[in-house]
């Protein structure tokens, strides 16, 4: 290869000297051709002096070294665009940012790939990086294996990439005319939420608009440390193994590959059809992750892990990558081919995926629990929060790893403790910071509603069903029955049935769902964020009064907050609007007689204030809500004449929102705080 065709290595940097030093050690250890290779440092205006010193003192023995010190701080997007423009100077470039580390053969791979794809107009860039976790929903990703060393995706690489002059000029010309995202532009929602500083979002827009692709290696020539920076603060999430290969690369044209992926990290339909002829007759969209936006479901059929009605074909969900289940015809009903109009668009819970990872966790925790039962039992006695208990438990596990295995401690033999430990493996896999939520619900054959509850997108959810096993078998397949716990409803008394479900709940937070009402995905996640930020909060109500048209009001009236006395509890007609901490419920059940659900809420008021949150928690789902556990059994306590008189005198101040005088009413009646969200997305407390 002639010197003029060798790409320049370009390293943008600004204020992370420790990252730059780490990258440069790997750059120095890499191998390069005998011809001269240019190294360019692009330093933003105001760069850290240590960054400047590292660039100046770095010894480069493979060709010219150039340091570009920009006059101004460009910001990430403008800086990367300026680095890409260096392809006009050097013909092609390999761009590696400072939070990366490169493999010894990164430069040979970039040169070989640029050479092979230089005349392919469908290719707009070469990646050095191989994804193991998708950037769509941060789920495990793996390309299909075949005889080729690359796969293709309508997704730009920013963790080590190469561009030829022609590839970069194509993007630059398009970007000049399409710098702003237009109304109605077809763009996945997750990309719309990316920062304005992201250059990659605009390159992906270009790939989608012009039907172009990036080439990705199946073994990675770079890895990402995720050091805190402009668009990154996820250390370790995108770490991947590095390859030691440096020659003998086998490439394939895009049109000959069966490993072609879209912007959702889903295999293209034509590839899947070629690998499973049973799909040939269907015009379909691939949605195996179950995360695709409705605007990107335009075909007649959809192949999805979401639920739907009347599946044409079904497959299991046992193999990785997910497409292998379809290619190999794995039996099951977790993946289905549906008419798009029959698909339930609710995302599937993330912990229902990837059985290989769940099996790994089960093996690890079996050993973990059996060897360390006594110590873990003590932790449970001290810690109500599961993720706090996990933080304490791991040091104990490390300390006792070599000691003789102990017989499972007696406290762990109890069903409640055993259920908590069994659930740890799922909690750790997809979000150890999520508090566990237990939902108790009766089931009397409402299949659609129950499927809606099962599809709630919350990563650490326990569902306890009050029903007969035969009822579940009619509407749920075997694997769906595994993810719930059920209580035989032979007991006719409604409260005794519910109480048995409450006693089985192992979540940090507990809620009750009457038929016809379902929590919202965003509401559950908001509650999780709130209880992490405000650990003193014990029970929460959402602003979700439901009208006859099944609409959700966005505003509560003040009167709905005035239920601090037990006799007003009958006004709460939607118990699905509430979530409470298990420790609060246990305190009430231990210290006073409870004869009904509203009696339980009355007890809550005696121990703690209720908080109201601005996010919506509940929504109507098809069937009308049934009446369960009404006012019967509510402990009604009277209000003194003096307090009634005080309320009558001070209530007008509250209604008129008179700043100081309104507190005469709110404090006397223990009006709860409201948890609101500011413009930055942070929750804060405010007296209503």
Helix content: 25-40%
Tally the helices: 23
Distance between the terminal alpha carbons, to the nearest Å? 72 Å
Output the structural class.
Answer: alpha/beta
Total beta-strand segments:
26
Cα radius of gyration in angstroms = 29 Å
Strand order of the largest sheet: 3-2-1-4-8-6-9-7-11
Approximately what portion of the residues adopt beta-strand conformation?
15-25%
Residue stretches low in confidence (pLDDT < 50, at least 5 long) are: 383-387, 397-432, 544-574, 622-638
Mean pLDDT: 76
Describe the global form. Answer: globular
Sheet with most strands: 9 strands, mixed
Would you give an account of this structure?
Mean pLDDT is 76; it is low at 383-387, 397-432, 544-574 and 622-638. It contains 23 helices and 26 strands. The chain starts with 7 loop residues before the first strand and ends with a strand. It is an alpha/beta fold and 688 residues long. The strands form five sheets. It has a nine-stranded mixed β-sheet, sandwiched between helices. A nine-stranded mixed β-sheet has the order 18-17-16-19-22-21-23-25-26.
List keywords for this structure.
single chain; 688 residues; alpha/beta; nine-stranded mixed sheet; 23 helices
How are the secondary structure elements laid out?
Layout (H helix, E strand, L loop, with lengths): L7 E6 L3 H13 L9 E5 L5 H9 L7 E5 L6 H9 L2 H4 L1 E4 L4 E3 L3 H11 L6 E5 L22 E4 L7 E4 H13 L11 H4 L7 H11 L2 E5 L4 E3 L35 E2 L7 H7 L8 E4 L13 E4 L8 E3 L7 H5 L7 E5 L15 H17 L1 H10 L3 H14 L15 H16 L6 E6 L4 H8 L6 E6 L2 H7 L2 H5 L1 E4 L6 H11 L4 E4 L4 E3 L1 H13 L5 E4 L35 E4 H10 L5 H11 L3 E3 L4 E3 L20 H15 L6 H7 L4 E5 L5 E5 L1
Parallel strand pairs: 1-2, 1-4, 2-3, 6-9, 7-11, 12-13, 16-17, 16-19, 17-18, 21-23, 23-25
Antiparallel strand pairs: 4-8, 5-10, 6-8, 7-9, 13-15, 14-15, 19-22, 20-24, 21-22, 25-26
């Amino acid at each position: 290869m002639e010197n003029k065709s060798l790409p320049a290595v370009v390293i943008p940097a600004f204020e992370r000297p420790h990252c730059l030093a780490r990258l440069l050690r790997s750059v120095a250890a890499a191998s390069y051709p005998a011809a001269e290779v240019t190294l360019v440092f692009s330093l933003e205006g105001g760069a850290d002096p240590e960054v400047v010193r590292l660039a100046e003192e770095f010894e480069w023995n493979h060709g010219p070294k150039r340091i570009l010190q920009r006059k101004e701080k460009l910001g990430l997007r403008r800086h990367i665009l300026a680095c890409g423009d260096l392809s006009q100077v050097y013909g092609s470039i390999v761009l590696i940012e400072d939070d990366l580390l490169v493999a010894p053969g990164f430069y040979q791979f970039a040169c070989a790939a640029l050479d092979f794809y230089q005349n392919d107009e469908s290719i707009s860039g070469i990646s050095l990086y191989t994804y193991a976790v998708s950037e769509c929903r941060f789920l495990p990703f793996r390309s299909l294996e075949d005889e080729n060393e690359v796969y293709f995706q309508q997704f730009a690489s920013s963790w080590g990439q190469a561009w030829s002059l022609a590839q970069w000029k194509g993007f630059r010309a398009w970007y000049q005319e399409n710098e702003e995202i237009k109304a109605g532009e077809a763009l996945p929602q997750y990309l719309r939420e990316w920062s304005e500083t992201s250059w990659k979002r605009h390159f992906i827009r270009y790939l989608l608009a012009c039907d172009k692709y990036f080439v990705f290696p199946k073994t990675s020539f770079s890895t990402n440390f995720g050091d805190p920076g402009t668009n990154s603060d996820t250390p370790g999430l995108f770490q991947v193994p590095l390859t030691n290969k440096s020659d003998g690369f086998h490439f394939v044209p895009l049109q000959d590959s069966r490993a072609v992926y879209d912007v959702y990290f889903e295999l293209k339909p034509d590839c899947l059809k070629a690998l499973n002829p049973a799909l040939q007759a269907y015009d379909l969209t691939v949605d195996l992750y179950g995360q695709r936006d409705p605007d990107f479901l335009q075909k007649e059929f959809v192949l999805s892990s979401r639920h739907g009605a009347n599946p044409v074909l079904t497959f299991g969900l046992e193999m990785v990558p997910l497409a292998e289940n379809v290619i190999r015809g794995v039996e099951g009903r977790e993946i289905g081919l549906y008419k798009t109009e029959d698909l339930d668009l609710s995302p599937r819970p993330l912990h229902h995926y990837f059985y290989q990872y769940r099996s790994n966790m089960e093996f690890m925790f079996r050993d973990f629990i059996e060897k360390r039962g006594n110590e873990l039992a003590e932790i449970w006695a001290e810690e109500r929060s599961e993720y706090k208990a996990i933080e304490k438990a791991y040091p104990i596990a490390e300390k006792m790893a070599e000691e003789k295995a102990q017989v499972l401690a007696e406290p762990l033999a109890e069903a409640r403790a055993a259920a908590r430990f069994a659930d740890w493996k799922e909690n750790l896999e997809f979000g150890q910071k999520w508090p566990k939520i237990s939902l108790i619900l009766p089931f009397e054959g409402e299949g659609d509603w129950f499927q809606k509850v099962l599809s709630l997108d919350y990563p650490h959810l326990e569902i306890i069903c009050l029903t007969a096993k035969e009822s579940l078998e009619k509407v749920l397949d075997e694997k769906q029955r595994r993810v719930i716990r059920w209580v035989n409803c032979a007991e006719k008394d409604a409260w005794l049935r519910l109480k048995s479900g409450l006693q089985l709940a192992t979540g940090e937070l507990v809620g009750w769902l009457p038929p016809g009402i379902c929590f919202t995905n965003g509401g559950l996640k908001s509650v999780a964020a709130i209880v992490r930020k405000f650990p003193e909060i014990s029970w929460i109500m959402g602003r979700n009064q439901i009208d006859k048209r099944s609409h959700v009001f966005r505003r509560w009236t003040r009167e709905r907050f005035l239920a601090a006395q037990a006799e007003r509890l009958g006004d709460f007609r939607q118990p699905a609007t509430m979530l409470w901490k298990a420790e609060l419920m246990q305190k009430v059940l231990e210290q006073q007689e409870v004869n009904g659900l509203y009696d339980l809420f009355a007890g809550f008021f005696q121990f703690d204030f209720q908080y109201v949150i601005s996010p919506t928690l509940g929504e109507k789902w098809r069937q009308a809500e049934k009446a369960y556990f009404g006012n019967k059994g509510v402990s009604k306590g009277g209000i003194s004449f003096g307090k009634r008189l005080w309320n009558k005198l001070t209530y007008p101040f509250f209604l008129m929102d008179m700043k100081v005088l309104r507190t005469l009413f709110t404090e006397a009646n223990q009006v709860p705080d409201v948890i609101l969200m500011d413009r930055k997305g942070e929750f804060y407390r405010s007296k209503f």
